Amino acid sequence: MFSRKLGFALGALIIFLAAVAFILGRPPHRDARIYPLVRQYSPFVVENGLGGLKIKRKDNPKFEVEPDTVNFYAQLQDLERRWAQKHLKIEANKLLILNNKGKTLKEIPFKNPSEKRFVETYYGVKAP
Questions:
Q1: Is residue 33 a contact partner of residue 40, using CB atoms and an 8 Å limit?
Q2: CA dist 51 → 24, 54, 68, 96 (Å)
Q3: What is the pLDDT of residue 22?
Q4: Quick check: 110 and 93 in contact, CB under 8 A?
Q5: Which of 17, 41, 68, 128 is the most buried (most CB within 10 A)?
Q6: Share of residues in the chain with pLDDT > 90 (%)
Q7: Concatenated DSSP letters of 8-65
Q8: Stretch 114-126: mean pLDDT, rounded?
Q9: String of b and e for 35-52 (b: at least 16 CB within 10 Å)?
Q10: Beta-strand relationship, 64-65 and 52-57
Q11: Through-space distance between the first and last CA atoms of the chain, rounded to whole angstroms
Q12: DSSP secondary structure letter of residue 102
């Protein structure tokens, strides 16, 4: 009788911990139109290695981050936010992607307010 209750408790605990890990490890919402356009200019690349996912830079082969599974998307978003502070700018109703010298590489017009809100929340770039 005691072992049956213990088995159910352990099973429930495992299911609960798996659900919590799933919720914490979920990637944040990304806009389907804006994110791929910005991603083309982002220096970060996600690679699948033997130990799990790795974040590398296109311009620096020595840069490699291998966060644990639960913190992977949070770490990627943090790196992208730091990059975006210098390379993304909101002007009027468009997003400007800048190079290292501040020259505009691409202008992306926003089609609706949710795209602008996505850039402000995901990348942390505020409109003037």
A1: no
A2: 20, 8, 9, 36
A3: 80
A4: yes
A5: 41
A6: 63
A7: HHHHHHHHHHHHHHHHHHPPPP--TTHHHHHHTT-SEEEEEETTEEEEEESS-TT-EE
A8: 93
A9: beebeeebebeeeeeeee
A10: antiparallel
A11: 66
A12: S
Residue with tokens 């429930």: 12
Q: Residues with Cβ < 8 Å from 74, sequence gap 6 or more?
A: 67
Q: Write out pLDDT tens, residues 73-113.
A: 999 999 999 999 999 999 989 999 999 999 999 999 999 99
Residue 33 has pLDDT above 80, yes or no: yes
CA distance 26 to 35: 17
Overall pTM > 0.85: no
Structure tokens at 78: 């943090």
